Amino acid sequence: MTQPHIDRGLFQTHLSELGVKKGGVVLVHSSLSSLGYFVGGADCVIGGLLEFIGSEGTLLMPAHTFSAVNRGERTFNSRKDASQAGKITEVFRQRPGVIRSTHPSHSVSVVGPMAKELIDGHLFADSPCGHGTPYAKLMDQNGQILLLGVGLKRNTCFHTVEAMAGVPYLLKPHKDEFSITENELSPIRVKVRCHNRAVPSRFEEFTEFLSHTGCLRQKRLGRGSSILIEAQRFRDTLLPLLADSPQLLLARSTTDVKLLATRLNDRV
């Protein structure tokens, strides 16, 4: 079967129709292979995004290494350790001008006017994704989450609202000690609070519900689709629900997500 061809012009038209903000703060999760054939590959995606949001925009991508942490790795080098979140994120990480936070499991790569502000203090935050991290700051800045060819399962910001809500299953009870190297500086020893190993979640089930709240839009692209989430509204929608039901996002939860959406419609 012929792969759908996506060039920069088509991609940028898609971003406009989806509602990505020019000059905004955008966190992108991605799968290059799931959408079709991008003319120019990962560089087409990255260049298209940067050109679209413009010089006043700030672009973030995950540069996660939590798989290594889960295997017992206790060293992290922000310059040398590859992103384990897909090809686009690794190409972006190595792009001139891009800087990276130094968290050993959930670092982000970022470029733009707000880059330093977003990553500042990530290593010393109380959790990998909660208050004081780039993910929480994205929400404070009314930023957007763009899922290119991936579903809600890849949306790290679910862990942000879990951390803010203080759910009991997210974090390890004790900190682990890491050797952290930033750029070419000497390593430092830091104790960091990491996530427990992932528990089965049902993030994907919230697609319809979040669409009803107005914080999620979805649109076809190539052989797949993109999802755009308004990060602040995402946070403000889920936090009260997690306060009432801390197990809401877990696979074992008995809360009916479709019923939540129905009740929301009834109030509108």
Query: Count of DSSP helices?
Result: 10
Oligomer: single chain
Query: Could you give the distance between the termini?
Result: 44 Å
Radius of gyration: 18 Å
Describe the structure.
The chain is an alpha/beta fold. 33% of the residues lie in helices and 20% in strands. It has ten helices and twelve strands. A hairpin with a 6-residue loop joins strand 9 and strand 10. The mean pLDDT is 92.
Layout: helices, strands, pairs:
Blueprint: E1 5-6, H1 8-18, E2 25-30, E3 37-38, H2 41-53, E4 58-62, H3 66-70, E5 75-77, H4 87-93, E6 99-100, E7 108-111, H5 115-119, H6 134-140, E8 144-148, H7 157-165, E9 176-181, E10 188-192, H8 207-213, E11 216-221, E12 224-230, H9 231-244, H10 257-267
Parallel strand pairs: 1-3, 2-4, 2-8, 5-9
Antiparallel strand pairs: 4-7, 6-7, 8-12, 9-10, 11-12
Helix pairs in contact: 1-2, 2-4, 7-9, 8-10
Task: Please give a handful of descriptors for the protein shown.
single chain; 268 residues; alpha/beta; seven-stranded mixed β-sheet; 10 helices; 12 strands; 20% strand
Describe, in short, the structure shown.
The chain is an alpha/beta fold.
